[in-house]
Amino acid sequence: MIRLGETRGRDNNFDLIRVIAAFSVLFAHSRALSGAAQPLAKGALGVFDAGTVAVDVFFFTSGFLVTGSLFGRGNIFDYIWGRAMRIFPALWVMLLVTVTILGLFVGTLPAAEFFRSPITRDYVLHCATLVNGVRYLLPGLFEGNPLTAGVNGSLWTLPIEWRLYEYLAAGWVLLAFRPAWRGSAFRFGTATAALVLMALVLRIFFVQHAREAALVPTFMFFYGAALQMWRARINLSYFRLGVLTAALAVASLSSATFLPVYLATLGPLVLHAAYLFEGPVRAYNRVGDYSYGVYIYAFPIQQTLIASVPGLSLLLLNIYAATLTLLCAVLSWHLLEKPALDRKLVPAAATERLFERLRDAMLDWRRRTA
């Protein structure tokens, strides 16, 4: 048995889990982008393909790790800067590379017309800032593809992810005058948010027979955050892993039970996979965290392959796309993402002193106006 509260650092399998999830999204998208009728795998409810489950895994993992990072740093400035360094540098380079290459060599419009188009500017502006969502169209691109309305459909999750980072930061700042309350407030706050969101997901599905695209990932994020805050009481074992797996397998036989069991068990299953399996599997940590690069480069590479090689089979599309995407992800990690993360900390002492001065000024103002 492993006590989750006693585990620390990067001695886990999260990097491997995330890169598997990223490639699962790639393979699921290949079928949709190539015009194939069915996704790789479906749950009993018919709405949980491999890519959907992978996105849920991403958000649960993010909520668990990011919340741990916030409390581990104990400094809101370091937290915000670290999150920005994780998301934006690689995103901006990907946008520069894909828009330039696609505009010059793949699109049907003359280069000058393509780069002058307000659609191009709108795409770059929104995707680079994640403000008010992202955009999916570039003029003259992929108009003959089975899925014409998307240059990089994977980016839809990034504004949601960044907004969730902001929610955690807002909670931290709101408790600035009572730092001792932060642990308890986050423990009960994240758990309450997860329970409320789970109830909303179930209500929408069973009453409206729909799945709100952003709601389940948001639930998964807060579920991960809650389990991070309660990690001292969580134990992992092969027996519990077997029980969770069996429960999900049995629930998948009935559309009435699959969704609630899926929502309840996915997070604990991820934690078991992350911490329970040791030995050679941990060697992946020495390779690099390629998951983000795979996630942001796969879609435009797949669309470009489909547009450039008519009649490309699904198997070859997967092979070519996975190979080219992995190459881009490796370069992105070693040349950009890792260097950015290594330099992501702003001077903690200076920012902490600034924050303390602001807090002291506010307290003094409150005393004088009381």
Question: Would you spell out the secondary-structure blueprint of this structure?
Answer:
Layout: E1 2-3, H1 14-34, H2 50-73, H3 76-106, H4 111-116, H5 118-129, H6 157-174, H7 182-208, H8 215-229, E2 235-236, H9 238-251, H10 258-275, H11 291-308, H12 314-342, H13 348-369
Antiparallel strand pairs: 1-2
Helix pairs in contact: 1-2, 1-11, 1-12, 2-3, 2-6, 2-8, 3-5, 3-6, 3-11, 3-12, 7-8, 9-10, 11-12
Description:
This protein is mainly α. It starts with a strand and ends with a helix. It has one domain. It has a two-stranded antiparallel ribbon with strand order 1-2.
Described by the principal axes of the CA atoms, the overall outline is: globular
Averaged pLDDT: 88
Terminal Cα separation, in Å?
Answer: 54 Å
Number of helices: 13
Estimate what percentage of residues fall within beta strands.
under 5%
Class by helix and strand content?
mainly alpha
Q: Find the count of extended strands (DSSP E, 2+ residues).
A: 2
What is the string of SSEs from the N terminus onward? EHHHHHHHHEHHHHH
Describe the sheet with the most strands.
2 strands, antiparallel
Q: Roughly what percent helix?
A: 55-70%
The parts where pLDDT drops under 50 for at least 5 residues are 39-45
Task: Write out key terms for the chains shown.
370 residues, mainly alpha, two-stranded antiparallel sheet, 2 strands
